[in-house]
Design a protein that fits this description.
The chain is α/β, with parallel strands linked by helices. Helices cover 32% and strands 32% of the residues. It has 2 domains: 4-128, Rossmann fold; 132-234, LytTr DNA-binding domain (OB fold (Dihydrolipoamide Acetyltransferase, E2P)). The protein contains 7 helices and 17 strands. The strands form 5 sheets. It has a 5-stranded parallel β-sheet with strand order 2-1-3-6-7, with helices on both faces. The chain has a 5-stranded antiparallel β-sheet with strand order 12-11-10-14-13.
């Protein structure tokens, strides 16, 4: 997944250490990490118009407050996913003054950074997923991917089972899946599920948060299990 992560920490060696943890994470493929040490550096970076997808920011930036910095960032309409970093437990509550994807406590550990990055990228994917435009019977329905619970193939049609309604369109399940985010996986010749709605996985079926049970065929069983475990490690976002 291609993304740009910016690390802001007023201690240069700690900013570099965190950047290296991000670079060695499994999610790093095709990404870029920028190391900054002051709030002014971040403002200059943003003024330049360069992209920013995930922001790792220390809560204490010398005399500056990372939470206030994020407040200004979000007020300006920058949609970066935020991960707060701090060595002080007192900030666990204060960071909830702003929307954020995760909180990582110092001293940093690779597995904690990877978990936080996965959560941030999952939220980014959910926020940027383009809505489906469904045309049928001279009507156009617009459906957000995160609202789709599962998809079903029915002869020459596809049924999109969303939270509030079921939509029927002409087409193939495989073609529809090409336009959906990676948290949709095929579990059967006739079904694909949104992993964020899975509550239980068994050998023959998945139980969804809506109470519906969807069959899982032997062909896709292993792929579904691996995709679900990977999604859980990333941190679910669509039901937040």
């Amino acid at each position: 997944m291609s993304f740009v992560a910016v690390v802001v920490d007023d201690v240069a060696r700690e900013a570099h250490a965190l950047a290296e943890m991000i670079r060695t994470s499994p999610q790093f493929d095709g990404a870029e990490v920028v190391e900054l040490t002051t709030a002014s550096d971040l403002r200059s970076y943003l003024t330049s118009g360069r992209p920013l997808d995930v922001l790792f920011v220390d809560v204490c930036l010398g005399e500056k407050n990372g939470i206030e910095l994020v407040e200004r960032l979000q007020a300006a309409g920058r949609g970066a996913q935020v991960v707060y970093v701090s060595g002080y437990d007192e900030f666990h509550t204060r960071v909830y003054a702003t929307p954020h994807a995760s909180f990582v406590r110092k001293p940093l550990h690779q597995e904690d950074v990877e978990l936080a990055l996965g959560q941030a990228l999952a939220r980014r994917e959910a926020a940027t997923a383009e809505p489906l435009v469904l045309r049928h019977d001279h009507v156009v329905d617009v459906v957000r991917p995160q609202d789709i619970v599962y998809v079903e193939s029915n002869r020459r049609h596809v049924l999109i089972h969303a939270r509030s309604a079921t939509h029927r369109v002409y087409g193939k399940l495989s073609v529809l899946l090409d336009g959906l985010p990676g948290y949709f996986v095929r579990c059967h010749q006739s079904y694909a599920i949104n992993l964020d709605y899975v509550e239980r996985l068994s050998a023959e079926s998945v139980l969804l948060a809506t109470g519906e049970s969807i069959p899982v065929s032997r062909r896709w069983r292993t792929a579904v299990r691996e995709a679900l475990f990977s999604r859980v490690r990333e941190g679910r976002s669509c039901l937040d």
